[in-house]
């Protein structure tokens, strides 16, 4: 009878052991149960020892029979060949990513080279300076001098580095740099980034209009709410005619422009290629080991506030850290793999269109005098309005479509 009770205790112990993952836990469990063998009336200590050993053996046999089998069934899914080493899983991730990433990388490189050649000729034929001079009077409504239009147009068609190179050489106040920074962060590198967003399913025309108008609206609002100092008033009063003078002062030869284009384009292509492959492999590895699911849970409250689904977390992180151009490969891979729906992509594009590159680009603008938290929070507020406005638009369209269907029937 006593041995039967110990056998039952051993079988109960094996059920508690099912989550253990090492033989050491087995031994600890055996010792613990054996130590709990109570004194048996009429039995000496020497006679109780075989009973304790029998008890431990029973626990070990029961555990091996039930716990180990259950654990192997759960971990191996009844197929030991499915479980591979960490190294093999990493190699598998790389092999799976390379074909599709290579196609995406080639497409992005073609777009980048084409856009850079277009900008080269726009600079040589003075199209960029002409656009800057035309937009100069408009910028006074944003609290900016006319010469700031050249920096904005350069960033609009090229990238943030072009805007920073020109803005850094101007005598702008912190207020002016902040406003100009918000405009450029909302709408820079428009040709390349619009092509990337269009490739993921966004409407290119809508992307251009939304990002451009968002930059203008935010600049206008900031001009109203940011305090105006005496330095700002003096800057605006003495800025007349500076834009044309600055444009005419520097007009390099085509050879100089071509050499500069070769170095800058080669640098961008190398950097972009490395980042595209690195991000694609990283995304696949994080997905393989379940890190993305954990990150999604952590960011879920913030993304819900912005009106975005939690499954967009990795894409949101990539866009906020690296931007749209460098993170485009990840965006297209997510769409190609079917991990995000078309609705999810449209919502994400509404958000990241004016709020991306919040690490490097934001720090660069802050380094020349911009107020970083104003530039960040103002664009987050704008993206909040855009996403929830787009959600309302989709809900209204769905309602109208339902009413139209009922009327037709």
Report on this structure.
This protein has 19 helices and no strands. By secondary structure, it is mainly alpha-helical. The longest helix is centred in the N-terminal third of the chain and has 39 residues, at about 85-125. The model is unreliable at about 1-10 and about 15-85 (pLDDT under 50).
Mean pLDDT: 77
Strand content: under 5%
- Distance between the ends: 78 Å
What's the shape?
globular
Number of strands: 0
Alpha-beta classification: mainly alpha
- Secondary-structure element sequence? HHHHHHHHHHHHHHHHHHH
Given as residue ranges, the uncertain stretches (5+ residues, pLDDT < 50) are 1-8, 13-83
Largest beta-sheet characterization: none
Tally of helical segments:
19
Main attributes?
409 residues, 19 helices, mainly alpha, single chain
How would you summarize this macromolecular structure in one to three sentences?
Helix content is 78%, strand content 0%.
Secondary-structure blueprint of this entry?
Layout (H helix, E strand, L loop, with lengths): L1 H15 L6 H13 L9 H32 L9 H39 L2 H13 L8 H10 L2 H8 L6 H13 L3 H10 L4 H22 L4 H8 L4 H8 L4 H35 L2 H15 L7 H10 L1 H13 L5 H11 L7 H8 L4 H37 L1
Helix pairs in contact: 1-3, 2-3, 4-9, 4-13, 4-16, 5-6, 6-7, 8-10, 8-18, 8-19, 9-16, 13-16, 15-16, 17-19
């Amino acid at each position: 009878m006593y041995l039967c009770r110990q056998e039952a205790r051993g079988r109960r112990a094996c059920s508690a052991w099912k989550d253990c993952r090492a033989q050491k836990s087995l031994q600890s469990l055996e010792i613990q149960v054996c130590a709990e063998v109570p004194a048996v009336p009429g039995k000496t200590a020497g006679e109780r020892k075989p009973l304790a050993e029998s008890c431990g053996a029973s626990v070990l046999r029961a555990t091996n029979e039930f716990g180990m089998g259950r654990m192997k069934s759960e971990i191996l899914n009844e197929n030991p060949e499915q479980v591979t080493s960490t190294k093999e899983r990493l190699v598998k991730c790389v092999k799976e990513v390379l074909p599709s990433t290579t196609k995406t990388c080639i497409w992005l490189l073609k777009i980048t080279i084409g856009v850079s050649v277009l900008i080269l000729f726009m600079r040589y034929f003075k199209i960029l300076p002409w656009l800057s001079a035309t937009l100069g009077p408009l910028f006074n409504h944003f609290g900016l001098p006319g010469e700031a239009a050249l920096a904005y147009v350069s960033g609009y068609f090229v990238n943030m580095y072009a805007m920073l190179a020109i803005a850094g050489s101007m005598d702008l106040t912190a207020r002016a740099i902040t406003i100009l920074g918000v405009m450029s962060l909302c709408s820079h590198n428009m040709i390349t980034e619009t092509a990337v967003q269009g490739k993921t399913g966004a409407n290119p025309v809508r992307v251009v209009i939304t990002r451009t108008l968002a930059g203008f609206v935010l600049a206008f609002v900031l001009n109203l709410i940011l305090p105006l100092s005496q330095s700002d008033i003096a800057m605006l009063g003495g800025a007349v005619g500076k834009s044309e003078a600055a444009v005419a002062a520097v007009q390099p030869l085509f050879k100089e422009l071509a050499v500069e284009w070769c170095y800058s384009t080669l640098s961008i292509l190398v950097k972009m290629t490395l980042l595209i492959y690195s991000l694609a492999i990283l995304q696949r590895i994080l997905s393989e080991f379940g890190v993305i699911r954990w990150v999604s849970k952590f960011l879920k409250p913030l993304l819900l506030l912005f009106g975005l689904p939690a499954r967009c977390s990795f894409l949101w992180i990539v866009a906020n850290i690296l931007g749209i151009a460098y993170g485009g490969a990840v965006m297209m891979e997510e769409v190609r793999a079917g991990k995000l729906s078309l609705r999810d992509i449209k919502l994400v594009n509404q958000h990241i269109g004016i709020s991306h590159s919040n690490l490097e680009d934001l720090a660069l603008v802050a380094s020349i005098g911009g107020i970083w938290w104003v530039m960040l929070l103002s664009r987050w507020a704008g993206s909040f309005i855009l996403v929830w406005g787009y959600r309302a638009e989709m809900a209204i369209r769905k309602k109208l479509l339902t009413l139209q269907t009922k009327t037709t029937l």
